[in-house]
Amino acid sequence: xxxxxxxxxxxxxxxxxxxxxxxxxxxxxxxxxxxxxxxxxxxxxxxxxxxxxxxxxxxxxxxxxxxxxxxxxxxxxxxxxxxxxxxxxxxx
Length: 92
Fold this sequence. Notes:
The protein is mostly helical. The protein has one domain: Arc Repressor Mutant, subunit A. It is built from five helices and two strands, in the order ααααββα. The protein has helices spanning 3-12, 23-33, 40-46, 51-63, 78-90, and strands spanning 67-70, 73-76. The protein has a two-stranded antiparallel sheet with strand order 1-2. A hairpin with a 2-residue loop joins strand 1 (67-70) and strand 2. Helix 2 packs across helix 5. The protein is globular and about 50 Å long.
């Protein structure tokens, strides 16, 4: 990104820098929120996601068996808890 463009964005946002989260960070957030079971709306709110992004990640985490969907709740599985723990330890 050019320096001019960066300065322009900073002036628009009042000097607040925008930092994007990695896919791993988003997955960790979702797994954290769903640790004891959560509805999709709670996950969206607590993990600060929009509906489409949350849907994509929930499907992916479910396919990988890191999260399960039971009785309207998303629950982090034991495999998901282990993944979250390892990812947090490896995070710089």
